[in-house]
Automatic annotation (TrEMBL):
<protein>
    <recommendedName>
        <fullName>adenosine deaminase</fullName>
        <ecNumber>3.5.4.4</ecNumber>
    </recommendedName>
</protein>
<dbReference type="GO" id="GO:0046103">
    <property type="term" value="P:inosine biosynthetic process"/>
</dbReference>
<dbReference type="GO" id="GO:0006154">
    <property type="term" value="P:adenosine catabolic process"/>
</dbReference>
<dbReference type="GO" id="GO:0005829">
    <property type="term" value="C:cytosol"/>
</dbReference>
<dbReference type="GO" id="GO:0004000">
    <property type="term" value="F:adenosine deaminase activity"/>
</dbReference>
<keyword id="KW-0378">Hydrolase</keyword>
<dbReference type="InterPro" id="IPR032466">
    <property type="entry name" value="Metal_Hydrolase"/>
</dbReference>
<feature type="domain" description="Adenosine deaminase">
    <location>
        <begin position="780"/>
        <end position="867"/>
    </location>
</feature>
<dbReference type="Pfam" id="PF00962">
    <property type="entry name" value="A_deaminase"/>
</dbReference>
<comment type="similarity">
    <text>Belongs to the metallo-dependent hydrolases superfamily. Adenosine and AMP deaminases family.</text>
</comment>
<dbReference type="GO" id="GO:0046872">
    <property type="term" value="F:metal ion binding"/>
</dbReference>
<dbReference type="InterPro" id="IPR006330">
    <property type="entry name" value="Ado/ade_deaminase"/>
</dbReference>
<dbReference type="InterPro" id="IPR001365">
    <property type="entry name" value="A_deaminase_dom"/>
</dbReference>
<keyword id="KW-0862">Zinc</keyword>
<dbReference type="GO" id="GO:0043103">
    <property type="term" value="P:hypoxanthine salvage"/>
</dbReference>
<keyword id="KW-0479">Metal-binding</keyword>
Length: 898
């Protein structure tokens, strides 16, 4: 049986067929038992040939109409040959699940050799439904009943790999709020809190439809809200059917099929409203446990790290059990369950990155939605954060766990936020008694923290301790990058540009305040501050360069603290030296632009041994493939192109790359563009502005721009008295600052309104073969430099695969960065790399899965002759090397070892 055709059909039937057909089929009281109705339900008929063909061609454009019709016939023929053909769609779900998954003991595992196609199969629908279907089928065979507290991510069944990873892994790139299973927690919240949801769906972050081809056709946001409300009622109805009378909470008037059909179609009747539905759901939850997050199970019991989503797993598990056992309680309503799945997966595609659009901007739209549907409900919001921690704390193989959080702008906000985070960790770590963050104890502590925030004193209050904090966990403060947005239509825009440097709002209004608050907070030597080991800058890097963060990062790294002693006894923990990680080279408009950003982060932030670069894809992507993907043309702002031309020119010269013709082309285009942006010729003291003096001015962009507000007034005395963190140290930089033409150039870069406005104009740049060849050589030379300087690189396979352009896991840049164990002739540059998850909730993954998917991809990689490229022994040696390097990269491991 061709499983590829069946997985294609499954994705079409669960994500592309029109959901309104199932909705409209219930406008009349036609929900009779299956064997009494003439009309075949949709879950068995699987729609019709025309509908299937239309959806098939939209989803798989490389096929034609004949192939689509044959695929539909093949699906029906396969179903007819099965022993459970009456199960229709639900047979197909089980068939696909059995192909990829297996159950060993209580674990649901994925067959290692099928990890890559498994991830593609569940890209749109997630893993949970197929896992529930398989668990239900197997438990029926074994007459078992399962507690559905399993992970939503299927682990690999490769024992060799799992034993290797059990030696210890480090999670070095983990954004806390992006790492909870956002869809599942949000869905549970929506199914239990159905009223007052219009504001959530009408948020500006939800305006854009990420997957227009979904089953629930995109209209206005109210449409999606109505569909989700239908799903909540369907779930409530089916759950009562599963529980059966006399425990059913359905009043007699609501047990009629006519009532059900009208609700599904219209969402309203004279004697029913959404408020009624909320009351009924609340009643079910009170009968279970008033503090439970879901009415389908008691989530307050100690049932593991995935308790918050166990209710949804329980509901689907019991539905599949009822389906596969031909339970008459639900048989007449299976089209309703089909509709429920269509709605759930359509909503999921708006929260979990499922579309095939590349680039950070696409991901950014997804990650901005992650908390919209839970943030107004404290219990669900706390569960959201708690699950982000618990997914790693529940894995004993994770020995170091770095969670990244955004700092507040005041000491009080920092202290309050980290106290709450530490309490959540203590309540969620293995072996801890279950203490809900919403319990009386936590509410009492929250009031203490609130009083502290409003008082003048920010000294820590005495805290109730549930357990010692898990030593594996520590935090990194990550600052958010922002574009410098200027509305040139405003009357005083140019005047403001002359008075303020680039990114004034981010530099002065936010970063400087944050740096001041963090410094004061660390001086207090609280245990929370002592558990912060690093700083980072994340989010959209295009149009927000490393120069913006340079003074603040240098200040925070130089901030030193000494332990507090009393009578020879250390009475306060000492905050560690802050190491730096910096997101860079992940998304770029030209590879040269990404390489320049990497170089700027190393230069301006003074990165060295122990520091890390996040992603750095520009350093390792195949340049020829990337430029082919972009059509050998890039589009960007004139200021960025000018800087790229200057930087590329000098790097070619510095590294001794032979490209005389290209150098002339770069220099000529630079001169033209420089004149366009800066209009008149700059010449001070008979020293003209050239590509060389412009390069000197570029090197000083890591200085605080306030020193160049009046370039002619910069004196030696100012250089001597300026705070070291505000300017780059070193004699070579002092020499540049003494050049008047260099100071004039950097002054105009920051304070010349006309230059800023012209630099914002868009231009295109054609790429030729000489340019590509020089880029490839420059990538290699920069890799060698970074390797010698001991700067590490954090890679995130699934994140990079979905955001980047390389299209296959076995082409991930990590293989170019480090291949010593993989091949018999490794490259001369071997970088210090690690594997991490990034935003595992958005990308539907976890740390163990990231290692497993890279191992599986390497095992399946073949050359042009169809031969396997890598030997299994080499692959596992490479995995072990990367795992060990990840442990060495841990900021906390570095400090504790020293």
């Amino acid at each position: 049986m061709d499983i590829d055709r069946l997985t294609q059909a499954l994705n079409i039937l669960l994500t592309r067929v029109p959901a309104h057909w199932l909705r409209d089929s219930h406008t009349k009281p036609s929900l009779r038992p299956v064997n009494k109705q003439a009309k075949i339900p949709f879950y068995r008929s699987l729609f019709d040939t025309t509908t299937f063909e239309r959806a098939y061609l939209a989803m798989y454009p490389s096929y034609g109409g004949n192939e689509a019709r044959l695929a539909y016939k093949y699906l029906h023929d396969s179903m007819a040959l099965s022993d459970n053909k009456d199960h229709g769609l639900f047979w197909l779900i089980r068939r696909v699940a059995r192909h990829f998954l297996k159950i060993e003991g209580h674990e649901i595992l994925c067959r290692h050799e099928l990890l890559i196609p498994w991830r593609e199969t569940v890209r749109y629908i997630g893993q949970s439904t197929l896992m529930c279907a398989l668990a239900a089928h197997k438990d029926l065979e074994r007459r078992n009943h399962r507690v559905c507290n399993f992970s939503p991510y299927a682990k690999s069944d490769n024992l060799r790999l799992r034993q290797l990873l059990a030696m210890g892994m480090a999670e070095n790139h983990f954004h806390l709020k992006g790492s909870a299973p956002a869809f599942l927690v949000s869905w549970v919240c929506l199914m239990n809190r159905v009223i007052d949801r219009a504001g959530d769906f009408n948020r500006k972050e939800m305006k854009h439809c990420m997957c227009p081809e979904r089953a629930v056709a995109p209209g206005n946001n109210g449409d999606l809200r109505d569909w989700v409300t239908r799903a909540a009622y369907i779930r409530y109805w089916l759950w009562n059917k599963l529980q059966s009378a006399p425990n059913s909470a359905l009043p007699p008037s609501e047990k009629t099929e006519a009532f059900l059909g009208s609700i599904v179609k219209h969402l309203a009747l004279p004697n029913f409203s959404i408020l009624n539905l909320q009351h009924r759901i609340n009643t079910l939850r009170v009968m279970n446990n008033p503090r439970s997050l879901d009415y389908t199970c008691d989530t307050t019991r100690d049932i593991g790290p995935y308790a918050a989503i166990a209710g949804e797993h329980t509901f689907q598990y019991l539905m599949f059990k009822a389906i596969y056992s031909d339970d008459d309680r639900v048989r007449p309503y299976l089209d309703l369950y089909y509709l429920y799945l269509l709605i759930a997966f359509s909503f999921r595609m708006e929260l979990v990155q499922a579309n095939k659009t590349v680039g950070f901007d696409n991901f950014h739209k997804y990650q901005n939605r992650k908390e919209i549907f839970v943030e107004r409900f404290p219990a669900y919001s706390e569960a959201f954060l708690g699950m982000a921690y618990a997914t790693n704390l529940g894995n004993k193989a994770v020995k170091s766990f770095e969670a990244r959080v955004t700092p507040g702008t005041t000491v009080q906000k920092l202290h309050r936020a980290f106290n709450i985070l530490h309490r959540i960790i203590e309540a969620r770590q293995p072996g801890a008694p279950h203490i809900s963050p919403s319990s009386n104890r936590m509410r009492t502590f929250a009031r203490q923290v609130e009083q502290l925030a409003q008082s003048q004193s920010w000294r820590p209050v005495r805290q109730p301790r549930a357990n010692p904090l898990d030593e594996r966990v520590f935090h990194v403060l990550h600052f958010i990058k922002e574009e410098d947005q200027i509305d040139w239509r405003k009357p005083f825009a140019r005047l403001a540009c002359m008075a303020r440097p680039r990114h004034y709002r981010l530099r002065v209004v936010k970063l400087e305040k944050m740096a001041e608050a963090i410094t004061s907070w660390r001086h207090g030597c609280s245990r929370e501050a002592a558990n912060v080991y690093g700083i980072d800058a994340c989010s959209q890097e295009i149009h927000c360069r490393p120069e913006v963060f340079a003074p603040a990062f240098r200040r925070l790294r130089q901030d030193m603290h000494y332990p507090w002693y009393w009578g020879g006894t250390k009475i306060r923990p000492t905050p560690p030296v802050l190491h730096i990680s910096y997101h860079v080279g992940e998304d770029f408009l030209d590879i040269v632009d990404g390489l320049r950003a990497i170089d700027e982060s190393i230069l301006y932030l003074e990165l060295t041994h122990g520091d890390r670069l996040g992603h750095a894809l520009a350093l390792g992507v195949d340049a020829r493939d990337w430029y082919n993907f972009k059509g050998d043309s890039v589009i960007l702002r004139k200021q960025d192109l000018l800087d790229n031309l200057m930087w590329f020119y000098h790097k070619i010269c510095e590294y001794g790359i032979v490209a005389d013709k290209l150098l002339r082309e770069l220099s000529g285009r630079f001169s033209m563009l420089f004149h366009e942006i800066y209009s008149q010729k700059i010449s001070v003291a008979n020293t003209p502005a050239t590509i060389d003096t412009y390069y000197g001015a570029w090197k000083l962009r890591g200085d605080h721009p306030i020193h160049y507000a009046h370039p002619t007034r910069v004196t030696n005395a100012l250089l001597l008295t300026a705070k070291r963190c505000n300017i780059l140290p070193g004699h070579k930089f002092d020499l540049l600052r003494r050049q008047t033409v260099v100071r004039e150039l950097i002054h105009r870069y920051h304070y010349n309104a006309l230059a800023k406005e012209r630099g914002e104009q868009i231009t295109t740049f054609k790429i030729n073969s000489d340019y590509v060849s020089a880029v490839k050589k420059l990538q290699q030379r920069m890799q060698e430099t970074i390797a010698r300087e001991g700067i590490a690189i954090e890679t995130n396979p699934t994140s990079n695969y979905l955001i980047g352009t390389f299209g296959a896991y076995d082409k991930h840049p990590i293989i170019r960065f480090y291949d010593r164990s993989l091949t018999d002739s490794p490259s001369p540059q071997q970088l210090f790399v690690s594997i991490n998850t990034d935003d595992q909730g958005v990308f539907d993954t976890d740390l163990e899965s990231e290692y497993a998917i890279m191992a599986s991809a390497l095992e399946q990689a073949k050359d042009e002759n169809g031969k396997f490229i890598y030997k299994p022994a080499n692959i596992y040696a490479w995995i072990d090397d990367v795992r060990a390097m990840g442990m060495l990269q841990s900021f906390k491991n570095i400090e504790t070892s020293l």
